[in-house]
Amino acid sequence: MLNATNPDLDAFKARDPQAGNYIRTFLLPGVLHCGGGAGPDTVDWVAAISDWVERGVAPSRLTARTITSGAVTRSRPICPYPQKAVYSGSGSTDDEKNFVCK
């Protein structure tokens, strides 16, 4: 069952194990429902979709950014569900390069 308090997609996966070939879910932690919040919320969705549709390159990781006064102040990887961004243990926590999708 999928609902607002239980994002378990196992039932969907059991019915269609090839779904990853045509659909991916990317969640933005720390971002409110319609934008805002503490998490990075700027993602180039159009480029990701364009690459997938026009070049056949499905997104395995996207980058979300917080932009303040025109400058990137934080970036984080956005991983396809059920993976999540995990800090590698070194470097700035404001730089997406220091995280891996697991």
Structural write-up:
With 102 residues, the chain is of the alpha+beta class. Helix content is 17%, strand content 21%. The protein has 2 helices and 4 strands; from the N terminus they run H-H-E-E-E-E. The longest helix has 11 residues, at 45-55.
How much of the sequence lies in strands comes to 15-25%
The description of the largest β-sheet is:
2 strands, antiparallel
**Overall pLDDT:** 89
Q: How would the global form be characterised?
A: globular
Q: What's the Cα radius of gyration? A: 15 Å
Task: Quickly count the domains.
Answer: 1
Strand order of the largest sheet: 1-2
End-to-end separation: 23 Å
Number of helices: 2
Residue share in helices?
10-25%
Structural class label: alpha+beta
Helices and strands, in N-to-C order? HHEEEE
What is the count of β-strands?
4
Low-confidence stretches: none
Jot down its keywords:
single chain, 102 residues, two-stranded antiparallel sheet, 4 strands
Concise summary:
This protein is an alpha+beta fold and 102 residues long.
Outline the fold blueprint.
Blueprint lengths: L9 H6 L29 H11 L6 E7 L2 E8 L6 E3 L11 E3 L1
Antiparallel strand pairs: 1-2, 3-4
